[in-house]
Amino acid sequence: MRRWNGWGDESVAFALNEEALGFLAQRIGTGTPVADAEFEQASAQLKVSRLPEHRLIDTSPEVRLRNALGQSLPDWLRLRYGVIDTAPDGVAYPESAQDVRELLEYAALHGVALIPQGGGTSVAGHLTAPSGTRSVAVNMTRMRQLLYLDTESQLATFGAGVFGPDLEAQLRARGYTLGHFPQSFEYSTLGGWVATRSSGQQSLRYGRIEQMFRGGSVETPAGTLHLPTFPASAAGPDLREMVLGSEGRLGILTEATVRVTAAPAYEAFHAVFFPSWSAAETAVRQVVQAGLSLSMLRLSNPLETTTMLALAGHKRMISLLERYLSLRGCKQGKCMLMIGVSGRKSLARAALREALGMTLPHGGVHVGRMMGEKWKQNRFRNVYLRNAAWQHGYAIDTVETAVDWPRVEIMMRAVESAATVALAQYGEKVHAYTHLSHLYAQGASVYTTFVYRLAGDYETDLARWKSLKKAASMAIVENGGTISHQHGVGSDHAPYLAAEKGRLGMSVLRALAEHVDTQQIMNPGKLLP
Amino acid sequence: MRRWNGWGDESVAFALNEEALGFLAQRIGTGTPVADAEFEQASAQLKVSRLPEHRLIDTSPEVRLRNALGQSLPDWLRLRYGVIDTAPDGVAYPESAQDVRELLEYAALHGVALIPQGGGTSVAGHLTAPSGTRSVAVNMTRMRQLLYLDTESQLATFGAGVFGPDLEAQLRARGYTLGHFPQSFEYSTLGGWVATRSSGQQSLRYGRIEQMFRGGSVETPAGTLHLPTFPASAAGPDLREMVLGSEGRLGILTEATVRVTAAPAYEAFHAVFFPSWSAAETAVRQVVQAGLSLSMLRLSNPLETTTMLALAGHKRMISLLERYLSLRGCKQGKCMLMIGVSGRKSLARAALREALGMTLPHGGVHVGRMMGEKWKQNRFRNVYLRNAAWQHGYAIDTVETAVDWPRVEIMMRAVESAATVALAQYGEKVHAYTHLSHLYAQGASVYTTFVYRLAGDYETDLARWKSLKKAASMAIVENGGTISHQHGVGSDHAPYLAAEKGRLGMSVLRALAEHVDTQQIMNPGKLLP
Q: Is the ipTM of this complex over 0.90?
């Protein structure tokens, strides 16, 4: 069963062994475990629903609690400490576009806000119920069917609430794949990916969701927006691009048509180490700009590399690896690169060879497939680390941005520096490390993870998070980064959006939302503060 | 010097020989040449400018006439027959964003409409001065500098009024290329490409302008919209996508940052013939879906193939070619495919080999590079054919759309059929032929050319064009195509836009324009009717 107060399935655990805990203790001190609130205790806090009845809406406290929050750190604090100060008044499970239209009419009639959601995996506060108004969470996960597969055009139309694994299973049965694998894959949905401009781990091959999303249907308070599929069009601004990233402010995506491709015959992930960050960054920039047919490039900085090796839990093997790398010039300050290739075996291997060859002048040491395959096995399990760390009294959070190449290293250092000292006022240290999660000819995403100790009470931990989030977000904005490369805006990033959109850009986005949603019932408070 | 009443430079001519004229005569009858109006006679018709003076605005009839119209067939009719029923009251030549802002203030103060323009190559009526209001054409071509080249991120920032050849020359001097080569390349501008969502002949390698346009600056009546460059972003809807295709309705693009790449070391164009349309279409679909590193695929249908061979003007060579093709199975009904490759020689040749191999099971006959290189030589000269045909009493016009694969052949036949009989009421035939100009995994653009005889007077020729344009446009809309894949909407396609955008989509686009341009002074009447 899915965890109500953490990531993923209750039956899956990701253990931290003594060495891993020793590593963390040395960096930021020993954590003190905190007792979790009970589900019953938490759900008992919910105020009585104030909603008029509706056949599609469930107002039981249990269902409301399970659909109240996402996976942002403030959401976790609420759940773990049992401080449920916000929850929708009900949860609707539409099964058709007609159901969604009915909910929109209900919302308009009663002045109730709607909060569309897929799998509730947002890490940016997309799902928080607005204060001061009644609200209904619209859980889209019953709309999950593959409705149409056009093999000639390689287009698949799904109900927008389909989960990642379900979508891939329906496509794989027919020989196709979408190829969209964000870390949230197991619990996130197609509609959520579109609404938040999601990007998957293999976007180098398959593209971001923007490139995959070819058309669909959006139910808005002003009517249905039908987005037909064209291979390309010069007929005015692209309405799809207004839906992408709209985060529920314009309406609810009910159907989405996506570009699919034949499932790859071959797939492999390899690891390469570099002696230093500057060597590694130069190498990956050259590789990505060469336009080779790779499916993934993911580069960890020295501290992330050290952290991953320390947390891997195979001390003997890792120390053998480190000795080998040291002999080959990768010592203190080494960086790990994961390279993925997919497709026809001959072409994939040729691309890999080419890429590996390009790393050599920069001191790249290819260590083969083993670590890459390990990474692949754990690609959706690493998120569980957050549960494990919490059990030992540590919080884990992340921020991410994207910048053009000349600012990649500057950004990485700025975010890490800002984070490292952000909790000094509490006498606490922050362990901050970074990887480039997605690489482009133009630049890269810069994805920083923070580990720090829990205080043990809700108020202090929320205050600590706020200090840290603000410091990291300001570093992003001040260094010219976008406030999100892949997580979206939600509530947590909304205060920083104007820095990149500008005064006029913000007013354009607001005008757009107000035009289709005159009563402002669609996910109020998110995206546009 | 540039022609005032036709395409291109006065010194360039594209002759039609006896065989070519014989071919046309046989298809649609012998043309009767029409005498052109003189420039002086035409400019003398312009009403006196009603504009208040401004240091940036030239109100002389000569300059106004040269900036009054584009290259649509109705524009040609006006110029050739000297019926100048529409012209701006003046032409401004801004040299900076500050100049553009000054023009916006002037326009707002005096209630004057602004018509932004680049090289005036629109074939969809983007430049027509609105009736019932004073207007100024804002000619952007003095803003043409390469302002910044970031070689690390492969981004170049230009003044938006830079012409294609000037842009490429500035980049090539530094070892880079944009790679955007629409047929209008010689006289179209970067800003025009962005404003109309242009696509170049080698988009398979370099992408459409949507993919190249990474940021920039737009002066709108509501202020400056600054679009920063990010490699990717999940921070809400993409404002660039509202500027792309906005056709001057939101404001004037003054600077654009575009993605560039190293100039290719190697480039080649090859021709392949197929025995039939269905064989050819299946082959190119498989080739494009294989994702090979090609730079161009361009497939002519049987009638276009016949027409191109007939108009080529090398009767003996062509008949040798046709004999050879016939022996190899390509007879009546054969189709010509152009394949382009660019990049590193070894990779380009490998991709070409792979593509050629894929055509074999479909009866593809590779005839080598000669025809391809000929095509390349003439890639920007074929437009001059329109001048030549006119001299012999023929009009040439085109329509284009894009559809997913299952509808490509249906669309091609529907547009050709509709066009062929569209002038029956005038007792005239239309010679209509088609190529797929841009190929995508999802589908293709369908680009149809019409040749028909001129009546010899403005009113009748305008009526004939209207009948033809309407018939072809209705065929596009009724068969689910976009009203433009690469030419934009302007005035001529505006009546058909709602068919794809829908009622709500149209109202969203209107709300957007009205929000930034409350007085509706920006290019009124275009895009949104």
A: yes
